[in-house]
Specification:
Length: about 130
């Protein structure tokens, strides 16, 4: 995989369920936080876009759970992005740092909605081109 962004994080106690593992819903938070932090490093602000009537929204997400994380585990969330027709697709993997085991593999389809209307995203090609994987 040719990752273009990596974000280290750590599991907090309250993210774990009764079995002592991270509750499945928290992985979506990790994935979203990684995408947002990636875009911030490129100068994109979701808040600013929203003020301009531009929203990038998840249209589909597929998550494969491979290895559970536990409280205190450090992990690294990685991503790369491709353009597929009107979608920008984020391929995201999370690895446990202690042994580099794959924890989660996700594919996140995103689309642009401008002033409430689905958009083909062409005006964002110039912005995303330096980050797109082939």
């Amino acid at each position: 995989m040719k990752y273009i962004y990596e974000l280290p994080m750590k599991v907090r106690d309250y993210e774990c369920d009764l079995q002592g593992i991270v509750n499945n819903a928290h992985y979506q938070h990790y994935l979203e936080h990684t995408r947002h932090e990636f875009l911030l490093t490129t100068g994109v602000s979701f808040a600013r876009w929203h003020e301009q009537g531009i929203d990038s929204v998840v249209s589909r997400i597929t998550i494969q759970f491979k290895t559970p994380l536990h409280s205190g585990d450090e992990f690294i969330s990685k991503l790369y992005v491709k353009r597929e027709r009107i979608k920008y697709v984020f391929y995201q993997d999370i690895f446990r740092m202690s042994d580099n085991k794959l924890v989660v593999r996700a594919v996140v389809d995103t689309v642009f909605v401008i002033d409430g209307q689905l958009n083909d995203g062409k005006q964002f090609e110039e912005f995303f081109t330096p980050y797109l994987s082939v």
